[in-house]
Amino acid sequence: MTDKRFSLSFLLITYIIFIGCSNLKKATAINKPLPVIFETDMGNDIDDALALDMLYKYADKKMVKLLAVSSNKNNTTSAIYLDIMNTWYGYPKIPVGKVVNGANSEHDAVNYTQAVAVYQPAFKRTTKDTAAYPESVNLYRRVLSEAADHSVVIVSVGFSTNLAKLLNSPPDSYTGLNGKALVAKKVKFLSVMAGNFEGKKMKEYNVIKDVPAARELFQEWPTEIVVSPFEVGEQIRYPATSILNDFKWAAHHPMVIAYESYAKMPYDRQTWDLTAVLYAAEGAKDYFSVSEPGTIKVLADEFTAFTPNPTGKHRYLKVNAEQAEGVKKRFIELITTPPALK
């Protein structure tokens, strides 16, 4: 009898230990930072800088691991600004990629990246030689080849140039997979700020600056795409009062200087790109409603259209007034938090 009791007790303890270890592994997997690549036309609109700030704050919280940042603005200071931001926020090892033969957007807005690049006292950079920034497609192929399967979320808040080039990239020394196969194997989903589906019909900026690339992205991208359209970020404004009052802890802040250089202060700015980052890092939660599945196309007239389809890989975000207020509060909460290393 004693031996039987001992055996049963031993089996019970072994089972409890097994279940505990299994649950620990599951918890560890759940809490593992989300691998993210940030694709941006940094320098065209200030919301890109605010969105990148959010990613560093998520990284500080171990919610995100920022694998790379990539510029699709055909301008040297765009990559320099990304380098300055990485270095200032305490992430100097995050690689920066640059577009080659990208769309011309040089005179579309005040280029705040130039203002920060020449600011005195000068901000530190990790890469001194601008020629050393790799072409974005090569950077994507290296970073994705090293990632776990179906793990990486790409957040695209600019033109689709680099992503279309990635899809068309051939096998190389990093992997024998072509671009589309590499994306299908390594990417979890794509979070995009682009298009316009509700309200006033319009041609959205990120789409029309490189229409062929945007069209190819929605036609050929092999994973799920969740789009934050123009009308979402249009409803949520980041307040100038926060820029003026909430950053006294930093004598010289590259995001604040950029914001103040972009337009005459005080101004509240739309948060288009921030919404794509928020969804990628935290999901819809109470922040957004999400459309039914469907297919997004860039039409011949350069407008975007969504067609419901139960088997479609595309969805888009929606926001009502109550949700918009909650999203704005979350933006302010994240962005005004000092970086971990400051």
For the largest beta-sheet, the strand count, sense and barrel status come to: 8 strands, mixed
The shape is globular
Whole-Å distance between the termini?
A: 65 Å
Radius of gyration: 22 Å
CATH first level: Alpha Beta
Q: What is the N-to-C order of secondary-structure elements (H for helix, E for strand)?
A: HEHEHEHHEHHEHHEHEHHEHEEEEH
Assembly type of the shown chains? single chain
Explained architecture:
With about 350 residues, the chain is of the alpha/beta class. It has a single domain (about 35-335), classed as Inosine-uridine Nucleoside N-ribohydrolase, Chain A. Helices cover about 45% and strands about 15% of the residues. It contains 14 helices and 12 strands. The chain has helices at about 1-30, 45-60, 75-90, 110-115, 135-145, 160-165, 180-185, 205-210, 210-220, 230-235, 240-245, 255-260, 270-280, 320-335, and strands at about 35-40, 65-70, 95-100, 150-155, 185-195, 225-230, 235-240, 270, 290, 295-300, 305-310, 315-320. The strands form 3 sheets. Strands 3-2-1-4-5-6-12-9 form an 8-stranded mixed sheet, sandwiched between helices. A hairpin with a 5-residue loop joins strand 10 (about 295-300) and strand 11 (about 305-310). The chain is globular and about 50 Å long. The N and C termini lie far apart (about 65 Å).
